[in-house]
Structure formats: structure tokens, C-alpha cells
Amino acid sequence: MPDRMKYTVVILFFIFYILSEACTTSRKITYVFPDAMAEQIRSEYLKQCEKGRILYDINCAKCHTTTVNRKAIVPDFEPEKLIGYELRVKNAEHENNLPETAISSEEFGLIMTFLSYKKKN
Amino acid sequence: MKKQFILVLSFVLVTVVLISFKNNSNPDPYLPNYLQKLGDFKNQQLALIKCIEKSRVDSAKDLVEIRRQIELARNNLKEMDFWLRYLEPTVYKKINGPLPVEWETEVFEKFEKPYKREGAGLTLAAMYLDEPVIEKDSLLHLIMTSLNAVHVFSEDSITEGLKTYHHFFLCNRLFLLNLAAIYTTGFECPDTARIIPELRLMLEDVSHTYLTFNESFPNTILPPDYMHLYKTAIQFANSEPENYSQFDHFTFIREYVNPLFAINQKLINEYNVTSKSVFVDYTLNKKSFSIFNKKVYNGQNPKGIFLRVNDEEALSEVNRVGKLLFYDPVLSGNNMRSCVSCHDPKQYFTNTAGATSLQYNRQDFLPRNTPSLVNVEYNHLLMQDGKHISLQNQTKAVICNPTELGSDEKEVVKKVLSCNEYNKVFKQLLKYTPQEKEITLDHIVSAITFYYSKFSHYYSPFDEAMNESREIETSAKQGFNLFMSKAQCATCHFVPQFNGVKPPFVGSEFEVLGVPADSVFKQLSGDHGRFDVNPAAETLNAFRTGSIRNAEHTKPYMHNGVFTSLDQVIDFYDAGGGTGRGLKISNQTLSSDSLHLTRTEKNNLLAFIKSLNEKIGFENPPEKLPVSKMKYLNSRKVGGEY
User: Fold this and answer.
1) Which stretch of DSSP H or E encloses residue A72?
2) What pTM was estimated for this model as a whole?
């Protein structure tokens, strides 16, 4: 009897683990900062990146984030794509969906900081 | 045999006729028309260069011929302006730059340092001919630079874009905005006698461009109502006097340009036009159907961190706490000063009592006149020296400036949140700003900018005359016509905001006027202006051009508040600014010649300026301020003490 219960508990835990893994939609994001970056500046950048990550989720993820094996993948953008007015105007979708009344230049800056320092996939 | 020969001959003839007929009416004439005009423009510039090369620049007779050749090249330019200005605006400055050197900060690069752009081309060449000593090489350089720049416009990257219809409606939008703002004012036309002739030429030529477009893009045409209205616009321009000071700018814009703009905006929406320009369309709003709609371009973001809040209830809460904060001296170091101390809502959000406002130390005065906050959101750079790029940064700087509100970030957040009312509202609003874990100074200043910016959304009798064809006094109309011509106001105070933001509304302009330190012109004001932010020979004593809206109510005037009446201001410009009054300023951007305005003309200008008084719905101050947990704060007065 206790053995069976043990099994049940283990199996239940296992199922719970699988379920909770499957429900996690966003993978933990890690950042890569240059080695030479001073600790204080690094923590400041980290804060900016985290703000940028949330703004990315609100404004960009719907179109750009892909799901692979139930895990959300934030794509790696080429640095030359991460220029303010390129983002805003050159892309016809952006021009319609992301006007200045939907996202400010400052916020675009935070998103670009996030995308620039995010660890590459 | 003979019969057969005739038959073959007639067959050949018919074929030849058919082919040649087909050639005559090319079904796709739009791009060839562009290339043809571009070729003509290049050739005329080559002719101009040849003419300069074989001329003697000290010979008056040769100079006459050079001028004539420049004029011919300008005509070619006017035929191309419709495209050139839109397709490559920075390259355009090499062809028709208004100034030898410009320092620019475009809206999408506000975070970067201003960068230097050197102008060249026909306008500068024509102006150079008026210099006392002319050097052939310098003159040639101006034209060669322009010719090189013109080559850019035949590159594939540009001509490919002309194969779809999208760019056309955006070129046309800029063209119409410029018809309202610069083409009739002499902004880039040093010879005032040529302004209206060049305008007529351009209108006629764009009409031809329209026809070729409609042939090449039959599915996205300019419809008959547009074409008809445009034709009547040409007729109007042709029937008006050739002197730009007698031209009826008011009727031209109200009856023709603005309605054409409305149709073009409608087409942009209908045809799903998308921008290919990284530059020109940045701030323009597709959903605005009048040039005099205040939403025609996006300036600042008054909502700040609450940008994406659209819920009416939440916004009314932002507005409510914004208003309380605006009147609350809790923002100051000594809890005795508030925003209202300098920006009195009863005085159009400025201080009309003196030249400049009192400092924090209660003894000295600030170096610059307090600007009105009304319509400030339609600027890209803020402050008279353009130091700030956002309303929220500006507000923060005032709070932390030891001569203004004399507080600091931590202190302000702590004191504000010690008031339960503020704390509660901002906490509820936190869900709209998930990127911020706690309430920050950004939340506080965003509420303030949101509150005061709503007073910028009102219209003046002049706007109503333009938008709803309401009547305004004849003197105001005549004043506007002068403003656009002889009085030379509109070359810096651009339609529609009458500030330093000109189409396509991506930057703020600065001017050196030679404003004196005193009203009797003993010496130049010692304030270096833009130079303090961006040191350069051109920026010394330069100040950002403000709006003339509500000017009647926002005295005193100029960066140091030196003039107490609009009459003084008009007299200052009439005399040719500081240099016109004998001050020595090497870089004044205002002409030092007198404008020769008559008393009646000055009165008409005043009537026009007064027609820009907006019908603002001002509010009463709050009755009391939120109660704080810190007892010593609860004796603070609404609006502060000084």
C-alpha cells in the first residue's frame, strides 16, 4: 500500500512537472553584456533590458515571437534592423500598427536595447 | 502585280501609322516623364556650368547671363520639385538648400547630437551673386554639387519606387503642404518677383504629372473631383496679381490647397498607400483631413508613460491627478512653489507679469522668459535652446533645477506618494505600465504633461475660417496675406502651427534675430541660446522659433521678454532685427533690410495675429490639495506661495 502511494505521488509530481513545463510560454531570457562593461552600468542596462522585454511582449511578440516545442523564441534581429526610423517607417506593417501614438521613441529605444543584449538563439 | 504592290504598300503604311500612333500615346508615360524632366534639369545645369566657365565674374554683362541661366535651371527644378523633395530630402538640400550650413535634429534622431548639413545649389548660387566679391570656383562648386546630387535621382533604388503608385500620393501630400507653407512665401526664392511666376509654372507642370500618373496607374487615379478642383486652383493662381504681396494667399489655401489636401488624404486611406520614405512621412497623420487640424502631425507625446492608456476613465484620473500636481508645491524643495508659479493657467500658462520669472531663491530672476505651455506639444525640440527632446524630460528638469523648483527625484516621489490620494490613483494606474514595477517620477511628470497639453487642442477664429469657411475680418485676411509675403513672417513661422516646424514637420528650426538686451538697442542679449547646447558658429545667439498662436495674451516677447507689446515686436522685425538697428551680429538669419511696412499693414498683421487667439476652455484651480501623511506638508497652498 505505501509503495503504491509512493508511486502515485511520484507519478502525480511527474505529471504536474510536465504540465507546468508545457504551460511556461516564455523561456527565461538571459543577456550577454560586454566583459568590459562596469558592474554598475551593467545593472542599469539589465533594468533597461527588462523594461524592453516587457514592452516587446506588449508590442512586438504577437507578430515576431515564434513558438518551437511550445517554447517562445524571440528572434535574433540583425543590428542594422534595429534603427528607430527603419523600425517605424520602412516596414509598412509598423507604419500602420505602431505609430507614435502607440509606442514612443523612448520605448522603441528600450526594446532595441533588449533585443541587442539578449542572448542569441 | 501592280494591285498586289499597292495592297502591300498600303498594309505597310497602315502598320507604320498604327505603330507611330501607339508611340505617340505611350500607355505608361509616368516614369518616362520623370526621366525626361530629370534629363532636362541635368542638361540645363551643364549649360549653366559651361556659361560660368566661360564668363568673367567681374563683368556685369556676364553676370546677367549667369543669372538668366540660373533662372532657367530653377524652372527645371520647379518641374521636379514634386518628386525630389520627397524622394531624397537630404540630397535635395544640395540642389536647393536654403542655407550654406544647417544644424539639424530630426525627430527620429532626437537622441543623437545635431548634425551638420551643408547646402548647395541654385538658391545659394543666386544669393552668392549678390556678394561684393565673387569667386568663380565657389560659384562653380555650388552648381557642381547640385549636379552630382541630381544624379542620385536616376539611380535604380529611386526609379524602382516610381513603378508603384504609393510614392505618388505621398509626394503629392508634401507638395500640397508646401503649397500652403512655403511655395508662396519666398522661402527658397531670393528674387521675390519670381515667386508667383515659379508657382504658376510648378502648378502647371504638376498638372501634367497628374495626367501621366492617371494614364500609367488607371486603378489608382486622382479622381475627376480632384482634377477639376486642381484646374480651378491653377486658374485662380493665374488670375491673381504677380506680386506675391498682392496675391490672395488666404483664398488660395482655403478654397484650393486645403480641400485638395483633404481629397489626397482620403485617397491615401482608400488606396492603402504605404510609405517607402524613412524620412518624410514620419510624423504625418493619415487620418487628418485638414492642414489646420491640430492632429495633422504628431509632435510630442503628452501622455508620456501612459501612452497606451485609451480607457476614458483611466485617462480622466490621469488628468485629475495631473491637474492637482500642476498646482501642488509638493514638487518643490521648499514646498512653496509649483508649476503655476511660472505657468499660470489663467495667463495662458505663462507669466505675463514681468520679463522673466522669479527664481527659487526668491530674489533673482530667471535668465529667460517663461514660454506658454499652450501648443508646446507641436514642437519637436523644447525650450528656447532646444535642450529637451520630450515634455517629460523638460518637466523633470524643472523639478530638479535648483533655480526653479529646487527638488530632486527621490524627494519628489517620496513626498507625492505620502499623499494617499496620489498614491491610490498611481497604484491603480500601474497596471497600464507593466514595464515599471513601482511608481516613478515618470508617472508623475506624465500626468502633468497630459493635464496641461489638453489646453493645446482648441482652435482659433483663423482655424475656423480655414476649416469651416467661417468669416473673419477682412483686416485679418489681409494681415495673413502680408504675413505670407512682404512682412516675411511665414518663412520662419510656418503654416499651420505658425511655429518653426515646416513640412514634413520632422524638426524644429532656430533663428538668429539679434534680440537686444534692452528695448533701446544698446547691446545684444548676452544669452548664447542654442550655442549652449550645440556650439557652432551658426548657433551663436540662435533661438527656437515659437508659435504666434495666442501671442496677444502671452506678453512679454522674445527669449528674454525684452518687448512688452506686439507693436514693439513688429517694429523690431520691420527694422531688420538687431543688425537693422545697428547691432553687430555676424550670423543674423533675419534680413537686416527694412520691410517698409505701413501703419495700416502693421495693423492688419496685428488683426491676423489676434485671429490666432484660441478659444481655450480654461478651468478653475482645485479647491484643495491631497492630504499627506507627513504633517508638515499639509500647510502647503494651492499653486504655492511665490
Assistant:
1) strand A71-73
2) 0.90
